[in-house]
């Protein structure tokens, strides 16, 4: 086992690779989450960290021991020069440490023992007391509660958005009438459908001027790895909407027993007038409720459809823990001006719309 040991006050920290965590470590990790009352978010599960460890060579986990027993886990990735990021940075929708209740930790001291000059986060979950004081922004992350059943949810949806549900159902009927029979598959293992989804998503990223995540081999490998997983606490879930036997929309998410995270949705633009992505999400919520899912986490980031479907918001945080020194200065120079500019644009809706149009034009020119 590759590890480094250091004493921090009364806690001993071992830094290991995700693959070095034992079955007991996985159990303790999950017990800590459950005992603390944290939601079973699959991104905060050890299986997600282990999967990232298979595709990211710089993935590490700091294991905190007290009196010889593990009391916490801090998964991260280490870049140069000592710049830390969350495990699976770029695709992780929930981030932070897993600490037994009552454990207090100094964030900068933890970074020192992990040989990090900084640790940047953009989806830090609420309740992360070592890191929240270092947040630069608090963001809303919409969720859909379906634990009381789909019928109860749609009753609530009708009250909050009287015309929205009618419009989505009308689009679904129109799709069936003009294209062909509509069929929905909630938990598909069709690798061809997954490949189609990734192609749609790549095209969407390029079209909107955003970085194509699926152009990065490690992300494609991670998704394929999670798609093959059977771990009930953290595995991929592919949902596909068909019309006349042809896939028109799909979503690949990450799920546990009770939480389904909305991750990679996309649709065939040929059928855009039928809003197949909205139809798929509605049918996915119905199937998730029947499958025992209590919460569908739509993730942070502005989107009109999320506001229509959501039942409430979670709070997540963006920011960074930075240690004094050259490495911390490099982080500040590389990230903080860009974050300040992004916040300036986001807080001004008209400017944000202009920025989105500019990105779309960049994407259009790139695809010529």
TrEMBL record:
Transmembrane segments: none annotated. InterPro entries: Acyl_CoA_acyltransferase, BioF2-like_GNAT_dom. Residues 167-307 form the BioF2-like acetyltransferase domain. The lineage of its organism: Bacteria, Bacillati, Actinomycetota, Actinomycetes, Kitasatosporales. This is GNAT family N-acetyltransferase. It comes from Streptomyces viridiviolaceus.
């Amino acid at each position: 086992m590759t590890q480094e040991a250091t004493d921090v006050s009364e806690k001993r920290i071992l830094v290991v690779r995700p693959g070095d965590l034992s079955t007991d470590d996985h159990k303790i990790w999950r017990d800590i989450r459950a005992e603390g009352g944290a939601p079973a978010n699959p991104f905060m599960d050890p299986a997600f960290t282990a999967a990232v460890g298979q595709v990211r060579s710089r993935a590490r986990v700091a294991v905190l021991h007290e009196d010889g027993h593990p009391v916490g886990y801090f998964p991260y990735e280490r870049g140069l020069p000592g710049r830390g990021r969350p495990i699976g940075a770029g695709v992780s929708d929930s981030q932070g440490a897993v600490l037994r209740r009552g454990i207090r930790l100094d964030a900068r001291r933890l970074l020192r023992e992990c040989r990090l000059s900084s640790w940047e986060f953009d989806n830090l979950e609420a309740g992360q007391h070592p890191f929240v004081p270092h947040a630069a922004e608090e963001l809303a992350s919409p969720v859909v509660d379906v634990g009381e059943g789909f019928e109860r949810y749609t009753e609530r949806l009708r009250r909050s958005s009287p015309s929205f549900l009618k419009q989505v159902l009308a689009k679904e009927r129109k799709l069936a009438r003009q294209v062909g029979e509509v069929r929905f598959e909630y938990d598909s293992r069709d690798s061809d459908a997954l490949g189609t989804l990734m192609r749609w998503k790549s095209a969407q990223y390029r079209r909107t001027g955003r970085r194509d995540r699926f152009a990065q081999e490690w992300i494609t490998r991670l998704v394929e790895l999670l798609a093959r997983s059977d771990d009930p606490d953290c595995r991929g879930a592919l949902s596909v909407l068909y019309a006349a036997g042809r896939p028109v929309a799909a979503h690949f998410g990450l799920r546990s027993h009770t939480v389904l995270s909305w991750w990679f949705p996309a649709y065939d633009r040929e059928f855009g007038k039928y809003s197949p992505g909205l139809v798929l999400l509605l049918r996915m919520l119905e199937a998730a409720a029947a499958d025992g899912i209590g919460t569908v986490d739509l993730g942070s980031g502005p989107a009109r459809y999320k506001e229509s479907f959501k039942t409430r918001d979670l709070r997540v945080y963006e920011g960074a823990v930075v240690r004094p020194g050259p490495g911390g200065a490099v982080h500040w120079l590389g990230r903080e001006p860009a974050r300040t500019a992004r916040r300036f644009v986001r807080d001004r809706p008209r400017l944000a719309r202009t920025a989105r149009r500019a990105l779309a034009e960049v994407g259009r020119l790139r695809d010529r």
